[in-house]
Amino acid sequence: MYKCKDASTREIIAFQKTYCESLAAAIGMNNKFRIQVESYEELPPWSFVYNADGSDRFLKDDIIMLKVCDLEKRIAYYPVFPEKRGLKLLQCWEMAVPPKLTAFEKEGETEGNIHRANQSLRNLIAFARLFMLSQSRWHKPMAYSFNNIISQLYLVPESDVAPETIKLINDVIGKYIRDNSQEHYIKCDNLQDFIDYIKTKYSLVTFKSDDFSLLRKILHDYYPVEKIYF
Question: Which domain of life is it from (predicted)?
């Protein structure tokens, strides 16, 4: 196992100038660092995410965030690229493209035979991710084991979800809501307050529709004293 600390602002600037400003330099990262996809997601309309290429342009729509670890210095970088550049890098490195996380409805989009609880947990994670990003001015890595959970949900879409997994997501949401060290640009007592807020404020955006009643029932049946934060 390897563990890397997050890079400082100065280290990030130097890293992006060296490895992110050109496609050729970015492709060469794979020869020097350990790389994995941190997130592949659709950004919300209120998001302000800088392109790692140093252009000072804010990214919109779909992005790919990488986790780049310098194993010698034990430093981790999280460059964010627009979808087209990110997919090109993954293709050059022959890396699998992970499922895209989104809380937004796509017209005419169908996902085949998906267990209802599986789909609902995908939606819950997507909205939880939006909430966590809304608590900061900067785009941040995924919380805890969200990446692994998302991959498993897409790997076996017809399968039910374990109560322990729902509890983990609920615990993470609760931690963010209760944590007074967070900046809390949008203060709320549970995730549903946040969802109601963004659906009202961004009424022209079509969000996924899910009341999470099935997940709440599963969680309550197995953990009857657990406080539910969604």
Answer: Bacteria
